[in-house]
Amino acid sequence: MGPADAIASAKPGDADWQNAGEARTAYWVLFVVTAVYALNIADRYVLSTLIEPIRAEFQLSDSALGLVTGVGMAIFYVTAGIPLGMLADRVNRKKMIAAALAAWSAMTAVCGLSQTFLQLLIGRMGVGIGEAGGTPPSQSLLADYFPRHRRLVATSIFAIGVPIGSAIGGIAAGIIAEAHGWRTALLAAGAAGIPIILLLLTINEPKRGRYDSVPMAGSAKPHSLRETLGFIHSRKSLFHIFAGGTIATFSGMGLIWWTPAFLARSHGLSVAEAGVEVGMMNGIGGGLALGASALLMIWLSRKPMSWQCYFTALITAAITIPAMLAHWFADRNLALLSLWLFIPLANVYIGPWLALIHNLVKPQMRAASVAISLFTANVANLIVAPQGIGTLSDLIRPYLVNPEESLRIALLISAVSGLWGAYHFVRAGREIDRE
């Protein structure tokens, strides 16, 4: 039995694949857009891995590092994200993804050519604009290749792009930087976009909403931003889903941003050692965790949608414990063991979170809704986490006997936020049951 047959039969009123060819095409498209997403994540983790050599060369504080690794990119990422998400509801999505990928790959290479901090910052701004145009059209495509009852599994498989990308970005960047310098690592990351663009040429643009109970007619217009925001505001369940995903992103990806630097400062790992260690946690541990999660989603897809919320709340709350222990233990082995529990599970929420958004909004506002969710999540991940944790570390630093431990304490404090995210997912489940 193949993956297309492993899911329960369609619910009444839901369209489904008509033949095995449609299923094979859908999973090929899923593979391609997951590869795009993996490269998107890889480009972020490359710079995260290179924090220490960049800090040493340009003599930067943690606040300045937060600016170049997070805020410098995120301001443009989140600003461009919603307009580009609205655009994805109106244009050929395959071409839009290819253009976005080409743009952020080129700007990653520009970062590798930077000779000053300002040049590096400008390059990161360009990366942010490019990456903002990748995920909304990718998610919109998946919703038109996968029927409603199959989207939970599809988005969970898509989320495997996070451990793949972070592993490639962390391991490759660490090894290349150790041997040839941090600039070469960024140039290699930029060149990696070329083969993925070629893969995008093999997929086609589907009819929007073709698997929804009420497909978009040819004359149907996408909703405006005001209409989309109004619809989200009218559903309390959606509000809590957006809030839960935003906070879960901070308590997971946001903390992991700083993990290579934390391992270098508090436990004496080199750039290559920290990059490989975090890359293995993301790649092997995260791949296994998200693979198991995708299989679990086959069972969960047969249950009421509120169960997806409760599952996500349970995961988000549970990983708060190893997240705190990882930054509490002074012993290197205990800290690494805790990180091996925390990092692989930190992105399990992505699949259920995206599937809930797909199935609770209208087809005409799907890409825009994903863009809005990414806007709030990436404010937390790319602005609050790098800049906020970096600034907190700088504030703590003068009061410590060993100033290099300031980052560890800042991360320990920030790890508690996972419980807040879990609360919103529980509330979302209750609201879905009411609605």
Q: What can you see in these coordinates?
A:
The protein has 435 residues and is mostly helical. The protein has a single domain (18-208, 224-434), classed as Growth Hormone, Chain: A, CATH 1.20.1250.20. It contains 21 helices and no strands. The chain has helices at residues 20-49, 51-58, 62-88, 93-112, 117-132, 135-145, 151-158, 161-180, 182-191, 193-200, 225-234, 236-256, 259-267, 271-300, 305-318, 320-326, 332-345, 350-360, 366-396, 406-414, 418-434. Helix 7 packs across helix 18 (350-360) and helix 14 packs parallel to helix 17. 58% of the residues are buried. Residues 1-13 and 215-219 have low confidence and may be disordered. Pfam families: MFS_1. Residues 29-433 form the Major facilitator superfamily (MFS) profile domain. It is a multi-pass membrane protein. Its main location: membrane.
